[in-house]
Design brief:
116 residues, alpha/beta, Rossmann fold, 5-stranded parallel β-sheet, two-stranded antiparallel ribbon, globular
Length: 116
C-alpha cells in the first residue's frame, strides 16, 4: 500500500514497485487509506508524512496496532531528527526524499524477505 497526496509521486512510486513485481494499492488521501487498512492488511505500508491535514504517521500507528508485522516506510521531504525519531518510535523505516527507485525497492525487498 502506498499513500501520498502528490499524485505524480504516487504514480511514480507505484510504477517502481509494480515494475519490481509487487502488487500495489495506491491512495492519494488519508481517509480512503485508513478505511483500506481497517479491511485488509498490507505487507508493506509506504506513506508520506504529510497527507493534507493528516499525518502519515497516524496510518503507521493504526497499521502497527492492528498488525505489528506490517512493514512501514515513511517518506518525507523534511529530514528532521524529531520526525525521524517519531517515525522510528512508531516502528517505521524513515526515508528522506528525494528517493531513488533502487533505494525504495531494496528496502521493500529486504524487509519483505525477512517476514516471508
Amino acid at each position: 500500500m502506498i499513500v501520498d497526496d502528490d499524485q505524480g509521486l504516487l504514480r511514480l512510486v507505484k510504477s517502481w514497485l509494480v515494475g519490481a513485481g509487487f502488487e500495489v494499492d495506491a491512495y492519494d488521501q488519508f481517509e480512503p487509506a485508513k478505511r483500506a487498512l481497517m479491511s485488509s492488511v498490507p505487507t508493506v505500508l509506504v506513506t508520506d508524512v504529510r497527507l493534507g491535514a493528516f499525518n502519515g504517521l497516524q496510518l503507521v500507528v493504526l497499521a502497527k496496532l492492528a498488525h505489528p508485522e506490517v512493514v512501514a516506510i515513511v517518506l518525507t521531504g523534511f529530514d528532521d531528527p524529531v520526525l525521524r525519531k517519531e517515525a522510528t518510535d512508531a516502528g517505521a523505516i524513515f526515508l528522506p526524499k528525494p528517493i531513488r527507485a533502487e533505494q525504495l525497492i531494496d528496502v521493500v525487498q529486504t524487509y519483505t524477505s525477512v517476514i516471508s
